[in-house]
């Protein structure tokens, strides 16, 4: 039997996705001493309920909400706290709702479906407020909310593929705290056209001669339609023909990443022009991207985020210099350029820089795309000295922009717009900016991933002294 080929199917085993879905309330410990009745005092940042034992030890309870009384079972004991899950809700919160997904409790993709959408969003506002307060930062009022639908919003999904010891093929997302997969036939947070492909994809995987050669599948919806990208570990001609037949039958574009160490992208059907659209400056921009590029999963909330950024930074004087750091394919650079700003956009990889420059050309916009190491504060210091920008836009990955913020503290600019996908690194960087004389003028939570504890946020920092220095320099000139 060749490497990666299917083994004969035997009786069903206990691999996740073959047995009945396990509820989040199901016990994970056989100890008779780990169940207790707890009153939930609040929510941790990750969405777990927080309670205390009679001895005062903290307990983080999955699936519990503030104000509830629950019977919980501890599945992990630590020195300073325990981790538990709900066995039974004895007194439910008014915020508790029926999860919209049949796989909730087994799939690890959405962890807050038992909490109302309004409650989820209040929780995210509270998390941002608390993390900033820990750094001594207390912006006025409540953070604005940038929201859209709670279901049918996700335009991109990466699906795991596994073949069990009996030859059974599984397709879906991982269970919570595990590498096991939950088989999905539908997913309510995916765009309907993506969710509709889950069951047919599993059927196709079942027909392959070498399903073990498939690492994962990625679905993306764009202006060009739906694209399916296969992570294929080894070449298999017969299975390639099956994938092409699937793509033709379903009307999807098909590509693969082939190889283990340095996979190369190859389109198995004619390569589409992958694009998404953003309104800005009274026109609609088209931004191209490629498989593997960063792309906000929620198109509607991303549009609201960009619109809010443009509103916060208005008015921009014609030709005003703006630095867009961690610029990606131009999600902020192009809309700002459409308003007349002079944009220098910086990215780390040459392929992304070329994509950004190509998007600017395709939209008839003047954006200077550069490659630079933004993990080195010297790069930012040099850019600030050269460009003297009125505004710096930051949209870093989860690690944040520590080196950039250190440079901005040393060489302040009038305004910094910081878009973050990790509130902890945002709070750290915000504290560094505050030490450099910046204050938070506006702040917002963007509910980019409804039903999850993931928190996207945006802060506008202003530096009054930097603005006065620029005005003085302008008068002197």
Automatic annotation (TrEMBL):
The active site is at residue 421. It comes from Halomonas koreensis. SUPFAM superfamilies: Nucleic acid-binding proteins, S-adenosyl-L-methionine-dependent methyltransferases. HAMAP family: 23SrRNA_methyltr_RlmD. It catalyses: uridine(1939) in 23S rRNA + S-adenosyl-L-methionine = 5-methyluridine(1939) in 23S rRNA + S-adenosyl-L-homocysteine + H(+). This is 23S rRNA (uracil(1939)-C(5))-methyltransferase RlmD. S-adenosyl-L-methionine binds at residues 296, 326, 331, 347, 373, 395. Residues 1-12 have a biased composition (Basic residues). Belongs to the class I-like SAM-binding methyltransferase superfamily. RNA M5U methyltransferase family. RlmD subfamily. Keywords: 4Fe-4S, Iron, Iron-sulfur, Metal-binding, Methyltransferase, rRNA processing, S-adenosyl-L-methionine, Transferase. Residues 29-88 form the TRAM domain. Catalyzes the formation of 5-methyl-uridine at position 1939 (m5U1939) in 23S rRNA. [4Fe-4S] cluster binds at residues 101, 107, 110, 187. PANTHER family: 23S RRNA (URACIL(1939)-C(5))-METHYLTRANSFERASE RLMD (PTHR11061:SF49), RNA M5U METHYLTRANSFERASE (PTHR11061). Residues 24-35 have a biased composition (Low complexity). InterPro entries: 23S_rRNA_MeTrfase_RlmD, MeTrfase_TrmA_AS, NA-bd_OB-fold, SAM-dependent_MTases_sf, TRAM_dom, U5_MeTrfase_fam. Its EC number is 2.1.1.190. Residues 1-36 are annotated as: Disordered.
């Amino acid at each position: 039997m060749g490497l990666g080929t299917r083994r004969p199917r035997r009786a069903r085993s206990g691999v996740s996705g073959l047995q009945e879905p396990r509820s989040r309330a199901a016990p994970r410990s056989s100890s008779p001493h780990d169940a207790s009745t707890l009153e939930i005092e609040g929510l941790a940042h990750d969405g777990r309920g927080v309670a205390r034992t009679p001895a005062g030890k903290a307990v983080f309870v999955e699936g519990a909400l503030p104000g509830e009384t629950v019977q919980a079972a501890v599945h992990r004991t630590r020195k300073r706290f325990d981790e538990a899950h709900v066995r039974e809700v004895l007194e439910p919160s008014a915020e508790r709702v029926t999860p919209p997904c049949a796989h909730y409790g087994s799939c690890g993709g959405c962890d807050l479906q038992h909490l109302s959408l309004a409650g989820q969003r209040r929780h995210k506002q509270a998390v941002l407020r608390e993390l900033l307060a820990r750094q001594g930062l207390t912006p006025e009022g409540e953070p604005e909310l940038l929201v859209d639908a709670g279901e049918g919003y996700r335009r991109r999904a990466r699906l795991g593929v596994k073949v069990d010891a009996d030859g059974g093929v599984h397709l879906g997302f991982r269970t919570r705290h595990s590498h096991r997969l939950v088989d999905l036939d539908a997913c309510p947070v995916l765009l309907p056209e993506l969710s509709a492909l889950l069951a047919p994809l599993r059927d196709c995987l079942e027909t392959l001669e070498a399903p073990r050669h498939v690492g994962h599948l990625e679905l993306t919806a764009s202006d060009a339609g739906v694209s399916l990208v296969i992570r294929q570990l080894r070449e298999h001609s017969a299975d390639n023909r099956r994938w092409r037949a699937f793509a033709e039958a379903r009307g999807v574009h098909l590509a693969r990443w082939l190889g283990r160490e340095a996979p190369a992208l190859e389109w198995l059907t004619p390569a589409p022009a992958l694009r998404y659209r953003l309104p800005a400056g009274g026109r609609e921009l088209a931004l191209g991207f490629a498989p593997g590029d960063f792309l906000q999963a929620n198109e509607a909330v991303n549009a609201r985020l960009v619109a809010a950024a443009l509103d916060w930074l208005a008015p921009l004087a014609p030709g005003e210099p703006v630095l867009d750091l961690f610029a990606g394919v131009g999600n902020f650079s192009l809309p700002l350029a459409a308003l007349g700003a002079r944009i220098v956009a910086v990215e780390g990889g040459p392929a992304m820089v070329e994509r950004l420059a190509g998007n600017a050309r395709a939209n008839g916009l003047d954006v200077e795309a550069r490659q630079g190491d933004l993990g080195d504060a010297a790069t930012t210091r040099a850019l600030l000295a050269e460009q003297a920008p009125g505004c710096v836009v930051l949209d870093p990955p989860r690690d944040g922009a520590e080196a950039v913020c250190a440079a901005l503290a040393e060489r302040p600019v009038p305004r910094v717009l910081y878009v973050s996908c990790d509130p902890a690194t945002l709070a750290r960087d915000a504290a560094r900016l505050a030490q450099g004389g910046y204050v938070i003028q506006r702040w917002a939570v963007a509910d980019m991933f409804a039903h999850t504890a993931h928190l996207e946020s945006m802060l506008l920092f202003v530096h009054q002294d930097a603005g006065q220095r620029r005005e003085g320099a302008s008068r002197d000139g």
